[in-house]
Structures are given as structure tokens and as C-alpha cells.
Amino acid sequence: MVTSSTMETAVPLITSYSNRRRELQAFDDTKAGVKGLVDAGIQKVPNIFIHPPDAFGKNSSDKCKEFSIPTIDFECLDKDPTSRQDIVEKVRCASETFGFFQVVNHGIPVSVLEEALHGVHRFFDQDSEVKKQLYTRDYTKKLVYNTNYDLFSSPAANWRDTFSSFMAPSPPQPEELPAACRDIMMEYSKQVMKLGITLFELLSKALGLDPNYLQDMECAKGLIFIGHCYPACPQPELTLGATKHTDDGFLTVLLQDQIGALQFLHEDHWIDVPPLPGALIVNIADLLQLITNDRFKSVEHRVVANHIGPRVSVACFFSTSVMPSTKLYGPIKELVSEDNPPKYRETTVQEYVSHSFSKGLDGESRLQHFRLI
Fold first, then answer.
1. What class is the 70-370 domain?
2. Which keywords does this Swiss-Prot/TrEMBL entry list (predicted)?
3. Which parts of 32-80 fold into alpha helices (H)?
4. Residue 352 burial class via C-beta count within 10 angstroms: exposed 0-12, middle 13-18, buried 19 and up
């Protein structure tokens, strides 16, 4: 039964939701993104970007200085079996304990890394009228540029603009990508695909499996190139560049610039990932945690807002979400036993990513939806 008092309570809530929806739509209709706000000289963070205080959690403290992201040097990877096994062990430890690690001497030239970041800058530095032609929420397009894929469903918007494209297994034609960054998108994606095969070989060995096991499961088949721009923020204490989340693919390879701002959660504290020239950050994603039956950890991470900017990064997600497939993924049979039964039900990549997309970056684990025990 609806009483007058419940009506009085409901009306402000409805009005508030209605106002927020209008503000979101008005912002989205500009097609200028967060960078457009900053370029216009905005001095205060709009309400749609303000996060509640509990969204910030525990920041880095003295306790956190005891921890640092593991850095693994691939220089001796092919030197001899002993050196390779040492690297496998480091990958295993990092994947089980942190879910995050950095790799150096990974084979991708520094010039390619630098050009990838320059390409992202060039994209976002284009004239606003040029970018508006690319702004869309139609994710069937070869290139998607917008602000917050979950803009209309998340509790608060993130201070970030993004463009993305599926680069494997069926890359777009060059003319389907922006001239400002098409060459480097294609070159960098090829290089990351090669690195991905190496990473999945090492991860397979770390699980005690054949080196080709994860590759044969098509974990390295699909790749998404994502360019992020985090403009300078006038009130960084009120918003986030990216809310805490895990990634929904198999593995993520991240290139960040020298501004930093990336953090991952370890023992209930946020740990900074300081920039390391020439390094790439690798993190375990949800589907790899699922198929390893929680052996490898998909760890929450976020990006804090900053007075300095724009910060740019390139995230490459190994995922086949764009490929229609009925292939089922569940805990690998070699990793389960009577004492260690499957913790997740089987799912397709498409089902998992669709669930992830519908949830948005709401701070809650997507894996729980698929958990059996």
C-alpha cells in the first residue's frame, strides 16, 4: 500500500534521478567528453562525476610502502632452461599473489611504446568537430569513442574519455581507423599479440600445463586496443579516473605514461603502480581466474584523478568477446580434483562479457554471478 509518507519520500528520489539523467544526456550530447569540459576551462567537477566518499577506500599509506608490484625481466627468457624456469616461477608467484606484475625487456621497442602513447595523444588532440564525428555508443562500429561506456548505468561517471577497436582476430581495414593513430594502433597490436603468446606460454607452464595449453584454448586469439585519456581534474578529491574494477577478459597488457595514478588492491590497501620507463603492466583478468579455479587472481584496480594531465594509457585486452562462439569456459580439468572441486560454472566469453557490460563499473565482482561455491 502506497501512503502519503512513502509518496513524499519517493518524489525527491524520482526527481533526483530524473535530473541526473538529464544532466548525463546533456553532457553526452555535447560529444566533447571530459576533455571538452577541461578545454572549456571548467573549474568545478560537475555533479554527475562526484563519487561518494566510500568509493575512495584506503589510499596508499606507510603500510603500503612495504609492497611493490613485482617486476619481471624477460631478457634471459630464451637464454637457457634454468633462466626460463626462473621466470616461470616469478610469473606464477605474481599471478597467484598479486594478480599484477610488470615486464621489462619484453621485446617491444621503446620507440613503439612511445609512439603508441603519442598516437593516443594525437587522437584526443584532434579538433573537437573531427572527434564528434566518431563519438558513438554503437559498439558494433569498428572504432568506438565516448566517455564512460557505462555512463547511464554507473553510480557516478569517471573522469575519462576512451576510444577502442577490436584488432584481432579480424583487424579493421586501415581506412576504418583514425588517421591520427591508425598506423601505430596496427603495429602496436601486432607486437602485443606476439608478447601475449609468450605470456600465455609462461602462464601455462606456471600452472604445470603444456606451454600451448592456454593458447589452444584461444585465450590469445582476440585483442582489443583501448586508448584512455584522463584530463587534468580541478577537484581530484571528488572523482576517479576509473572506479575500482577487475577486467573481464583473460589478460590485460597496459602501457601507462609517466604521470602514474594507477593503483591495485592488495590486503585491503591501494598500492601505487609507479611508472617505469619501458615497462608494460600485466594483470590477470576474470576469465583467467575462472578457468584456473581461483589459482590466478583477477585483482581490483583503479585510476585516481589528478591535477596533472592529460594522463594517457593504452590497455590491450585479450578477449574474444566480439566473436560469436558457443565455446564454453570453465575450470580447467587438470586443475580440479575431489579436494579442489570446480568453483565456477561454465560460460561463454560472450555471456560473461555481456554480464560485465550490463553491470558496468559498479565496484562489485562479476565473477560472483558465475560462482558455484
1. mainly beta
2. Iron, Metal-binding, Oxidoreductase, Vitamin C
3. 33-39
4. buried
Domain boundaries defined on the chain? 70-370
* Confidence at residue 66, expressed as pLDDT on a 0 to 100 scale: 65
Q: Is the pTM of this model over 0.85?
A: yes
C-alpha cell at 41: 576551462
Strand ranges across the sheet with 100-104: 71-73, 100-104, 280-284, 251-256, 311-318, 223-230, 161-168, 144-146
Question: Burial level of 22, CB count in 10 A (0-12/13-18/19+)?
Answer: exposed
Give alpha helix (H) positions in the chain: 4-30, 33-39, 81-97, 110-125, 128-132, 182-206, 213-216, 286-291, 349-359
Q: Which amino acid is at 323?
A: M
- All cell numbers assigned to 236: 581530484
Q: How far, CA to CA in Å, does 360 sit from each of 18, 51, 56, 107, 244?
A: 20, 15, 17, 34, 11
CA-closest candidate to residue 230, choices 40, 32, 38: 38
